[in-house]
C-alpha cells in the first residue's frame, strides 16, 4: 500500500471538509450563531471554573457580554435603584409561591432569571443571576435590561373577527422542555403581506414557552394563547416600551443574541439531549446541535409582573421612574 498517497488523500479530504464547514458557517446564520454560542459558553465556563467566587464571576462575565451586545442598541434600558428593588421583591414573591408546587424549580441553584414588567408605563425586560442559596435571603444580581413590547389589553370594544391582540398575563413561566415537553424553534426570516418579518432574521431563536391563559383585548374574556419570547422586525422595534404585541414578549435582536450566546434559558435541554431517545431529543438537537455546550448557570424561569398593579411592595415607585407612552391603536 502507498502510505504517502493514502496520507495525502486523507489530508486533502480533511482540508476539503474543513473548507466546507467554513463555507457553511459563512452562509448559514444558524451555524454561525451556534458556533458563537458554544465558544462563548466555553470561554465563560473556563474563566469562572477556578475562581472561588464563581457567582460573582458569572455575573461579571454576563454583564460584559450583555453590555457588548447592546452597547449601540437604543432599546437598552437602565432601571433606577427603586425599580431594581421593586423587581427583586416581586421576583422573590412570585418565585416563592410558584416553586412550592412546580416541577423543575430549584432556587438553591445559581441560575439566570428573567423578569418582565408589563406595566402600561413602559415595558421592560431585566436579566438577573440568582445566587444559589437555601432558605430566605436569596440574592438577585442584576445583569442588564432592555425595552420590550408586551401584549395589548386595551379595553376598547373591537370587531373580534379582525382582532388578534391579547394581554400578556403575569406569573411565572418556564422554558424547560423537560417540564413543558415543548422545544422552541428558529425564525425562517419570511415576510408577511405587509412586508414585516415578525421574528426578524432567519435563524433567530424563538423561545416557545407554551400555553398562557390571558384576556382578549377586545372584550376582556379569558383566552389561552401560545406564549413566546422572540425578536421582531425593526419596524416593530419602534414600538418597544409600549403594549403593542399580540400577547407574546417582543425583545430586541441584541437581547435575543445574549440569551442564545449565554445559554441563559437552556436549562433542561441538557437533560433532554443526554437522557432521552425520543422525538423531542431529535428536535432539541436540531435546535442547538448534537453536542452543545451548556452553562452552569443556565436557567429557564421568566417572571412577569405589572408594577402598576402592585400595592403592597416595600417601596413605592416614583412617578419619574418611567415616561408614560400610550400604546398604539393598531399593530402591523
Give the helix/strand layout.
Elements: H1 3-27, H2 29-49, H3 54-70, H4 81-98, E1 111-117, E2 124-131, E3 139-147, E4 171-174, H5 177-180, E5 185-186, E6 205-215, E7 222-231, H6 234-237, E8 249-251, H7 253-262, H8 269-275, H9 279-288, E9 301-305
Helix pairs in contact: 1-2, 2-3, 2-7, 3-7, 8-9
Largest sheet: 5 strands, mixed
Strand order of the largest sheet: 3-2-1-9-4
The CATH level-2 architecture is identified as Beta Barrel
How many domain units?
Answer: 1
Describe the structure.
- Helix content is 35%, strand content 18%.
- It is an alpha+beta fold and 332 residues long.
- It has one domain (17-309): L,D-transpeptidase catalytic domain-like (Beta Barrel).
- The strands form 2 sheets. Strands 3-2-1-9-4 form a 5-stranded mixed β-sheet, sandwiched between helices. Strands 5-6-7-8 form a 4-stranded mixed β-sheet, covered by helices on one side.
- The longest helix is centred in the first third of the chain and has 25 residues, at 3-27.
- It is globular, with a radius of gyration of 22 Å.
- The N and C termini lie far apart (68 Å).
- Residues 1-24 and 318-332 have low confidence and may be disordered.
Descriptive keywords:
332 residues; alpha+beta; L,D-transpeptidase catalytic domain-like; 5-stranded mixed sheet; 9 strands; 18% strand; disordered C terminus
Amino acid at each position: 500500500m502507498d502510505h504517502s498517497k493514502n496520507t495525502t488523500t486523507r489530508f486533502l479530504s480533511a482540508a476539503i471538509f474543513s473548507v466546507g464547514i467554513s463555507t457553511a458557517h459563512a452562509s448559514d446564520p444558524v451555524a454561525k450563531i451556534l458556533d458563537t454560542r458554544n465558544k462563548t459558553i466555553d470561554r465563560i465556563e473556563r474563566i469562572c471554573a477556578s475562581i472561588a467566587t464563581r457567582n460573582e464571576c458569572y455575573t461579571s462575565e454576563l454583564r460584559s457580554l450583555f453590555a457588548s451586545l447592546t452597547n449601540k442598541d437604543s432599546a437598552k434600558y437602565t432601571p433606577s435603584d427603586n425599580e431594581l428593588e421593586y423587581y427583586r421583591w416581586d421576583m422573590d414573591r412570585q418565585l416563592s409561591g410558584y416553586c412550592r408546587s412546580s416541577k423543575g424549580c430549584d432556587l438553591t441553584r445559581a441560575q439566570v432569571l428573567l423578569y418582565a414588567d408589563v406595566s402600561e408605563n413602559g415595558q421592560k425586560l431585566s436579566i438577573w443571576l440568582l445566587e444559589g442559596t437555601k432558605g430566605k435571603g436569596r440574592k438577585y444580581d442584576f445583569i442588564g435590561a432592555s425595552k420590550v413590547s408586551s401584549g395589548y389589553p386595551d379595553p376598547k370594544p373591537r370587531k373580534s373577527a379582525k382582532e388578534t391582540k391579547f394581554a400578556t398575563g403575569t406569573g411565572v413561566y418556564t422554558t424547560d422542555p423537560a417540564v413543558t415537553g415543548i422545544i422552541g424553534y428558529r425564525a425562517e426570516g419570511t415576510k408577511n403581506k405587509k412586508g414585516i418579518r415578525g421574528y426578524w432574521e432567519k435563524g433567530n431563536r424563538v423561545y416557545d414557552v407554551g400555553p398562557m391563559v390571558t384576556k382578549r383585548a377586545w372584550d376582556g374574556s379569558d383566552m389561552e394563547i401560545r406564549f413566546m419570547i422572540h425578536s421582531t422586525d425593526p419596524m416593530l422595534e419602534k414600538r418597544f416600551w409600549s403594549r403593542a404585541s399580540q400577547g407574546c414578549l417582543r425583545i430586541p435582536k441584541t437581547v435575543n443574541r445574549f440569551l442564545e450566546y449565554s445559554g441563559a434559558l437552556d436549562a433542561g435541554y441538557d437533560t433532554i439531549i443526554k437522557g432521552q431517545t425520543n422525538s423531542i431529543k431529535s428536535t432539541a438537537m436540531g435546535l442547538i446541535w448534537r453536542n452543545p455546550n451548556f452553562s452552569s448557570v443556565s436557567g429557564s424561569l421568566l417572571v412577569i409582573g405589572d408594577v402598576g398593579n402592585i400595592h403592597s411592595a416595600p417601596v413605592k415607585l416614583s412617578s419619574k421612574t418611567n415616561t408614560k407612552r400610550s400604546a398604539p391603536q393598531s399593530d402591523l
